[in-house]
TrEMBL record:
The chain crosses the membrane at residues 21-41, 47-73, 94-116, 122-141, 148-169, 175-196, 217-239, 245-265, 277-297. Pathway: Porphyrin-containing compound metabolism; heme O biosynthesis; heme O from protoheme: step 1/1. It catalyses: heme b + (2E,6E)-farnesyl diphosphate + H2O = Fe(II)-heme o + diphosphate. Carbon 2 of the heme B porphyrin ring is defined according to the Fischer nomenclature. Belongs to the UbiA prenyltransferase family. Protoheme IX farnesyltransferase subfamily. GO terms for cellular component: plasma membrane. Keywords: Cell membrane, Heme biosynthesis, Membrane, Transferase, Transmembrane, Transmembrane helix. Converts heme B (protoheme IX) to heme O by substitution of the vinyl group on carbon 2 of heme B porphyrin ring with a hydroxyethyl farnesyl side group. This is Protoheme IX farnesyltransferase. GO terms for molecular function: protoheme IX farnesyltransferase activity. Its main location: membrane. It is a multi-pass membrane protein.
Length: 303
Protein backbone atom coordinates (compact mmCIF):
# COMPACT_ATOMS: atom_id res chain seq x y z
CA UNK A 1 0.00 0.00 0.00
CA UNK A 2 2.82 2.38 0.82
CA UNK A 3 4.38 1.83 -2.61
CA UNK A 4 1.06 2.53 -4.35
CA UNK A 5 0.66 5.81 -2.48
CA UNK A 6 4.16 6.91 -3.38
CA UNK A 7 3.57 6.10 -7.04
CA UNK A 8 0.31 8.04 -7.01
CA UNK A 9 1.97 11.04 -5.41
CA UNK A 10 4.74 10.89 -7.99
CA UNK A 11 2.23 10.70 -10.84
CA UNK A 12 0.35 13.72 -9.51
CA UNK A 13 3.61 15.65 -9.18
CA UNK A 14 4.45 14.98 -12.81
CA UNK A 15 0.96 16.05 -13.82
CA UNK A 16 1.26 19.36 -11.96
CA UNK A 17 4.68 19.87 -13.52
CA UNK A 18 3.21 19.39 -17.00
CA UNK A 19 0.44 21.92 -16.38
CA UNK A 20 2.98 24.39 -15.00
CA UNK A 21 5.20 23.86 -18.07
CA UNK A 22 2.33 24.83 -20.37
CA UNK A 23 2.12 28.29 -18.78
CA UNK A 24 5.62 29.26 -20.05
CA UNK A 25 6.15 30.84 -16.64
CA UNK A 26 9.73 32.01 -17.30
CA UNK A 27 8.56 33.98 -20.33
CA UNK A 28 5.59 35.32 -18.36
CA UNK A 29 7.93 36.48 -15.58
CA UNK A 30 9.88 38.68 -18.01
CA UNK A 31 6.59 40.02 -19.32
CA UNK A 32 5.35 40.70 -15.78
CA UNK A 33 8.47 42.74 -15.08
CA UNK A 34 7.45 45.14 -17.87
CA UNK A 35 3.88 45.17 -16.50
CA UNK A 36 5.30 46.13 -13.10
CA UNK A 37 7.45 48.87 -14.63
CA UNK A 38 4.46 50.25 -16.53
CA UNK A 39 2.43 50.30 -13.32
CA UNK A 40 5.16 52.01 -11.31
CA UNK A 41 5.81 54.56 -14.05
CA UNK A 42 2.20 55.63 -13.63
CA UNK A 43 2.59 55.85 -9.85
CA UNK A 44 4.23 58.29 -7.51
CA UNK A 45 6.12 57.31 -4.36
CA UNK A 46 2.83 56.28 -2.72
CA UNK A 47 2.32 52.87 -4.40
CA UNK A 48 -1.00 51.06 -4.23
CA UNK A 49 0.31 47.59 -3.40
CA UNK A 50 -3.09 45.88 -3.53
CA UNK A 51 -3.88 47.24 -6.98
CA UNK A 52 -0.37 46.35 -8.16
CA UNK A 53 -0.71 42.76 -6.89
CA UNK A 54 -4.14 42.30 -8.51
CA UNK A 55 -2.81 43.71 -11.78
CA UNK A 56 0.16 41.34 -11.84
CA UNK A 57 -1.93 38.30 -10.95
CA UNK A 58 -4.70 39.18 -13.41
CA UNK A 59 -2.39 39.87 -16.34
CA UNK A 60 -0.39 36.74 -15.48
CA UNK A 61 -3.55 34.63 -15.67
CA UNK A 62 -4.44 36.00 -19.11
CA UNK A 63 -0.86 35.61 -20.38
CA UNK A 64 -0.56 32.03 -19.13
CA UNK A 65 -3.92 31.26 -20.74
CA UNK A 66 -2.50 32.37 -24.09
CA UNK A 67 0.63 30.27 -23.51
CA UNK A 68 -1.45 27.14 -22.85
CA UNK A 69 -3.53 27.85 -25.95
CA UNK A 70 -0.30 28.14 -27.92
CA UNK A 71 0.73 24.67 -26.70
CA UNK A 72 -2.63 23.34 -27.83
CA UNK A 73 -2.62 24.91 -31.30
CA UNK A 74 1.07 24.15 -31.92
CA UNK A 75 0.93 20.51 -30.79
CA UNK A 76 1.41 18.97 -34.25
CA UNK A 77 4.24 21.34 -35.18
CA UNK A 78 5.81 20.80 -31.74
CA UNK A 79 5.98 17.04 -32.36
CA UNK A 80 8.32 17.65 -35.31
CA UNK A 81 10.72 19.96 -33.46
CA UNK A 82 13.54 18.79 -31.20
CA UNK A 83 13.12 21.84 -28.97
CA UNK A 84 9.39 21.34 -28.37
CA UNK A 85 8.56 17.67 -28.92
CA UNK A 86 8.51 16.98 -25.16
CA UNK A 87 5.93 19.66 -24.44
CA UNK A 88 2.99 18.25 -22.46
CA UNK A 89 0.31 18.41 -25.16
CA UNK A 90 2.65 17.44 -28.01
CA UNK A 91 3.90 14.40 -26.08
CA UNK A 92 0.41 13.34 -25.02
CA UNK A 93 0.96 13.89 -21.29
CA UNK A 94 -1.91 16.37 -21.23
CA UNK A 95 -5.00 15.87 -23.41
CA UNK A 96 -6.26 18.61 -25.74
CA UNK A 97 -9.50 18.83 -23.77
CA UNK A 98 -7.63 19.30 -20.49
CA UNK A 99 -5.31 21.90 -22.00
CA UNK A 100 -8.23 23.91 -23.38
CA UNK A 101 -10.10 23.74 -20.07
CA UNK A 102 -6.95 24.86 -18.21
CA UNK A 103 -6.48 27.76 -20.62
CA UNK A 104 -10.07 28.95 -20.14
CA UNK A 105 -9.77 28.58 -16.36
CA UNK A 106 -6.68 30.80 -16.32
CA UNK A 107 -8.35 33.34 -18.60
CA UNK A 108 -11.51 33.44 -16.51
CA UNK A 109 -9.57 33.84 -13.26
CA UNK A 110 -7.17 36.44 -14.65
CA UNK A 111 -9.71 38.56 -16.52
CA UNK A 112 -12.22 38.21 -13.69
CA UNK A 113 -9.72 39.57 -11.18
CA UNK A 114 -8.90 42.50 -13.47
CA UNK A 115 -12.58 43.38 -13.98
CA UNK A 116 -13.26 43.05 -10.26
CA UNK A 117 -10.26 44.75 -8.67
CA UNK A 118 -8.52 46.80 -11.38
CA UNK A 119 -10.55 48.24 -14.29
CA UNK A 120 -12.36 47.18 -17.44
CA UNK A 121 -9.79 48.76 -19.77
CA UNK A 122 -6.93 46.63 -18.41
CA UNK A 123 -9.14 43.54 -18.48
CA UNK A 124 -10.22 43.98 -22.11
CA UNK A 125 -6.71 44.82 -23.27
CA UNK A 126 -5.37 41.71 -21.50
CA UNK A 127 -8.04 39.53 -23.13
CA UNK A 128 -7.23 41.04 -26.52
CA UNK A 129 -3.52 40.39 -26.03
CA UNK A 130 -4.20 36.77 -25.07
CA UNK A 131 -6.38 36.27 -28.15
CA UNK A 132 -3.83 37.95 -30.42
CA UNK A 133 -1.04 35.64 -29.24
CA UNK A 134 -2.94 32.44 -28.54
CA UNK A 135 -5.13 32.50 -31.64
CA UNK A 136 -4.16 35.08 -34.30
CA UNK A 137 -0.40 34.52 -34.04
CA UNK A 138 -0.35 30.79 -33.24
CA UNK A 139 -3.16 29.70 -35.54
CA UNK A 140 -2.87 32.10 -38.45
CA UNK A 141 0.31 34.18 -38.65
CA UNK A 142 2.93 31.64 -37.53
CA UNK A 143 2.28 29.09 -40.32
CA UNK A 144 1.43 31.73 -42.94
CA UNK A 145 4.25 34.24 -43.31
CA UNK A 146 7.94 34.83 -42.50
CA UNK A 147 6.82 38.16 -41.04
CA UNK A 148 4.80 36.29 -38.40
CA UNK A 149 6.82 37.53 -35.46
CA UNK A 150 6.87 41.11 -36.79
CA UNK A 151 3.09 41.37 -36.95
CA UNK A 152 2.39 39.03 -34.04
CA UNK A 153 4.90 40.86 -31.87
CA UNK A 154 2.27 43.47 -31.06
CA UNK A 155 0.58 41.07 -28.62
CA UNK A 156 3.85 40.57 -26.76
CA UNK A 157 4.48 44.32 -26.69
CA UNK A 158 1.36 45.16 -24.69
CA UNK A 159 2.43 44.38 -21.08
CA UNK A 160 3.81 47.81 -20.05
CA UNK A 161 0.66 49.42 -21.43
CA UNK A 162 -1.44 47.02 -19.35
CA UNK A 163 0.46 47.95 -16.20
CA UNK A 164 0.10 51.67 -16.85
CA UNK A 165 -3.59 51.40 -17.77
CA UNK A 166 -4.22 49.65 -14.45
CA UNK A 167 -3.10 52.68 -12.47
CA UNK A 168 -3.98 55.48 -14.92
CA UNK A 169 -7.30 54.17 -16.24
CA UNK A 170 -6.54 55.30 -19.78
CA UNK A 171 -4.04 54.75 -22.62
CA UNK A 172 -1.27 57.32 -22.30
CA UNK A 173 1.06 58.42 -25.15
CA UNK A 174 4.20 57.42 -23.23
CA UNK A 175 2.75 53.94 -22.68
CA UNK A 176 2.28 53.58 -26.43
CA UNK A 177 5.98 54.38 -26.80
CA UNK A 178 6.87 51.50 -24.46
CA UNK A 179 4.73 49.22 -26.64
CA UNK A 180 6.60 50.48 -29.70
CA UNK A 181 9.94 49.76 -28.03
CA UNK A 182 9.06 46.11 -27.34
CA UNK A 183 7.44 45.78 -30.78
CA UNK A 184 10.70 46.94 -32.41
CA UNK A 185 12.83 44.77 -30.10
CA UNK A 186 10.89 41.57 -30.85
CA UNK A 187 12.21 40.80 -34.39
CA UNK A 188 15.96 40.86 -33.55
CA UNK A 189 15.23 39.00 -30.32
CA UNK A 190 13.24 36.23 -31.98
CA UNK A 191 15.15 36.04 -35.26
CA UNK A 192 18.36 35.35 -33.34
CA UNK A 193 16.61 32.33 -31.80
CA UNK A 194 15.21 31.31 -35.17
CA UNK A 195 18.68 31.34 -36.74
CA UNK A 196 20.13 28.70 -34.44
CA UNK A 197 16.85 26.75 -34.37
CA UNK A 198 16.22 27.00 -38.13
CA UNK A 199 16.46 23.23 -38.74
CA UNK A 200 13.72 22.64 -36.19
CA UNK A 201 11.45 25.18 -37.87
CA UNK A 202 12.18 23.69 -41.28
CA UNK A 203 11.16 20.21 -40.07
CA UNK A 204 7.91 21.59 -38.74
CA UNK A 205 7.20 23.54 -41.96
CA UNK A 206 7.09 26.83 -40.10
CA UNK A 207 8.08 29.65 -42.52
CA UNK A 208 10.42 31.49 -40.19
CA UNK A 209 12.64 33.96 -41.98
CA UNK A 210 15.89 31.94 -41.70
CA UNK A 211 14.06 29.05 -43.39
CA UNK A 212 12.48 31.06 -46.21
CA UNK A 213 15.12 33.76 -46.80
CA UNK A 214 18.34 32.35 -45.35
CA UNK A 215 20.32 33.19 -42.23
CA UNK A 216 22.38 36.02 -43.77
CA UNK A 217 19.27 37.94 -44.84
CA UNK A 218 17.63 37.33 -41.45
CA UNK A 219 20.69 38.52 -39.55
CA UNK A 220 20.81 41.66 -41.71
CA UNK A 221 17.13 42.35 -40.97
CA UNK A 222 17.82 41.89 -37.26
CA UNK A 223 20.60 44.46 -37.43
CA UNK A 224 18.34 46.94 -39.25
CA UNK A 225 15.67 46.51 -36.59
CA UNK A 226 18.32 47.16 -33.94
CA UNK A 227 19.19 50.44 -35.63
CA UNK A 228 15.51 51.34 -35.60
CA UNK A 229 15.33 50.31 -31.94
CA UNK A 230 18.12 52.78 -31.14
CA UNK A 231 15.88 55.57 -32.45
CA UNK A 232 12.63 54.34 -30.91
CA UNK A 233 14.14 53.72 -27.47
CA UNK A 234 15.27 57.36 -27.06
CA UNK A 235 11.84 58.77 -27.94
CA UNK A 236 10.80 58.85 -24.25
CA UNK A 237 13.60 61.37 -23.75
CA UNK A 238 12.52 63.41 -26.77
CA UNK A 239 8.94 63.76 -25.47
CA UNK A 240 10.23 64.69 -22.01
CA UNK A 241 9.00 61.69 -20.02
CA UNK A 242 12.53 60.40 -19.29
CA UNK A 243 15.81 62.09 -18.49
CA UNK A 244 19.59 61.77 -18.52
CA UNK A 245 19.89 58.55 -16.48
CA UNK A 246 17.65 56.67 -18.90
CA UNK A 247 19.41 58.19 -21.92
CA UNK A 248 22.87 57.09 -20.73
CA UNK A 249 21.78 53.55 -19.88
CA UNK A 250 19.76 53.17 -23.08
CA UNK A 251 22.67 54.41 -25.20
CA UNK A 252 25.05 51.86 -23.69
CA UNK A 253 22.79 48.81 -24.03
CA UNK A 254 21.69 49.91 -27.51
CA UNK A 255 25.31 50.09 -28.62
CA UNK A 256 26.03 46.58 -27.33
CA UNK A 257 22.87 45.05 -28.82
CA UNK A 258 23.53 46.70 -32.18
CA UNK A 259 27.14 45.48 -32.14
CA UNK A 260 26.05 41.92 -31.39
CA UNK A 261 23.50 41.89 -34.21
CA UNK A 262 26.09 43.38 -36.57
CA UNK A 263 28.57 40.64 -35.65
CA UNK A 264 25.80 38.07 -36.14
CA UNK A 265 25.22 39.49 -39.63
CA UNK A 266 28.94 39.29 -40.45
CA UNK A 267 29.14 35.74 -39.06
CA UNK A 268 25.64 34.22 -38.68
CA UNK A 269 26.80 31.16 -36.77
CA UNK A 270 24.76 29.37 -34.13
CA UNK A 271 27.16 30.59 -31.45
CA UNK A 272 26.73 34.27 -32.34
CA UNK A 273 22.98 33.88 -32.76
CA UNK A 274 22.66 32.24 -29.35
CA UNK A 275 24.77 34.98 -27.75
CA UNK A 276 22.65 37.68 -29.39
CA UNK A 277 19.42 36.01 -28.29
CA UNK A 278 20.57 35.76 -24.68
CA UNK A 279 21.68 39.38 -24.60
CA UNK A 280 18.36 40.52 -26.09
CA UNK A 281 16.63 39.33 -22.90
CA UNK A 282 19.17 41.18 -20.76
CA UNK A 283 18.65 44.23 -22.96
CA UNK A 284 14.88 44.51 -22.45
CA UNK A 285 15.19 43.95 -18.71
CA UNK A 286 17.85 46.66 -18.35
CA UNK A 287 15.98 49.09 -20.60
CA UNK A 288 12.84 48.90 -18.49
CA UNK A 289 14.90 49.03 -15.32
CA UNK A 290 16.42 52.25 -16.69
CA UNK A 291 12.93 53.67 -17.28
CA UNK A 292 12.03 52.91 -13.69
CA UNK A 293 15.25 54.22 -12.14
CA UNK A 294 15.06 57.47 -14.08
CA UNK A 295 11.39 57.92 -13.12
CA UNK A 296 11.98 57.61 -9.37
CA UNK A 297 15.16 59.67 -9.36
CA UNK A 298 13.18 62.48 -10.99
CA UNK A 299 10.32 62.05 -8.52
CA UNK A 300 12.63 62.20 -5.52
CA UNK A 301 14.79 65.02 -6.92
CA UNK A 302 11.85 67.31 -7.74
CA UNK A 303 9.58 66.44 -4.81
Amino acid sequence: MEKVLKFGELKNAFSLKDYFAMTKFKVVLVMLFTVLVGFLLGSDTNINLWLMTCTLLGVAGCAMSGAVLNHLIDRFRDQKMQRTKRRPVASGKVSTESAFAFSMLLLTAGAGLLFWQVNALTAWLSIASMFAYGVIYSLWLKPATPQNITVGGLAGAMPPLLGHAAIAGHVAPEALLWVLIIFTWTPPHFWALAIYKRDDYAKADVPMMPVTHGIEFTAFQAWLYCLLLCVVSVMPVLIGSQGLIYLVMATYINAKFTWLTYRMWCDPSNTRARKTFRYSIVYIMWLFAALLLDHYVQLIAFS
